[in-house]
Amino acid sequence: MQTYPIPMVPGPVRAHPAVLEAYRVDYGSADLEAEYLELYTRTEANLKALLQTDRSVVIFLGEGMMALWGALKSCLARGDRVLSIGTGVYGYGIGEMAAAVGADVRTVGRPYNETLAELSAVEAAIAAFKPKMITVVHCETPSGTLNPLDALGRLKQAMGVPLLYVDAVSSIGGAPVLPDAWHIDLCLGGSQKCLSALPDTCFLSVSEAAWDIIEQVNYAGYDAVKPFRAAVAKHYFPYTPGWQATAGLNAGAEAILEEGLERCFRRHSEVAAHCRRRLVEIGYTLFPAPDAVPAPTVTAVNVPGAVQWPAFDARLRSHGLVVGGSYGPIAGKVFRLGHMGTQADMGLMDQALAVLEKEVC
Length: 361
What we know:
The protein is α/β, with parallel strands linked by helices. About 40% of the residues lie in helices and about 15% in strands. It folds into 2 domains: about 5-15 and about 260-360, Alpha-Beta Complex (Aspartate Aminotransferase, domain 1), CATH 3.90.1150.10; about 15-260, Aspartate Aminotransferase, domain 2 (3-Layer(aba) Sandwich), CATH 3.40.640.10. It has 12 helices and 13 strands. The protein is globular and about 60 Å long.
């Protein structure tokens, strides 16, 4: 299998050594062993520390989309109203997911290269539509942008919207994500981004208001959130837990906490700022609009106009650098450097920038 010495894809990122070590131990049946229960509760405590929350955290066995789908299905009945805020591929996509489970969806959208600024359109939509849930993406990975959520959370609270659903898969561990302070009821995370683990677990924090709605909806599918409310107390999980996967997720969380949240956030911000500054100096143009908030975990760059993306990608790979393309309407037009988790490393970034300087068109 082809490998590259300069990995800068925006996830799954290069796994942390402690994560890989966690997979080396062979355990018994997790649903029968008291040691797994201790591991699960320790992992939940570490994830709560990352999120600086007192709310319960549910850990799923599955890639990040498991949490995104599970939270929607667990909280929405057919015909429930969802206000979807779209600023990129994933924001618009979550609205489509909600519609697929039978919700009545209205979208407040912005261009893919912009972020939430003023909220008058959102406020008007809430007043007219009266949604049960607002959905939004914190870090729009395909666009390299970060949506400020504090003001949105205050607006949601003031206007009495029952649920705020936030995809923070690409920001948890790389930037402050504060479910309690931002009034987020369902805050969704994944293992393979800033936590530098494998793409086999995901998680979400759940507010008491969300738990009440989850009980009312009573969704019973494989990705249901409800069974996890009593799973620890009963030591009974809805499916066989992944012992190594949970251990890997825990190792990724512990690595961040050992580094310290503020130091970790600063490392991500400094590498991101260095990346953007040097790219512009070299001659590239950044995809986000000048007044958009750039993400500290991923940088989106316009593919140089003199070359097609497949050819440009091949040239970078010939130097050992692998970056990410993008999706949806910006596929083939934008490429991305994922400086998150283990890849938020100044030395690795300088290697990537040296290759990009050689190949600038």
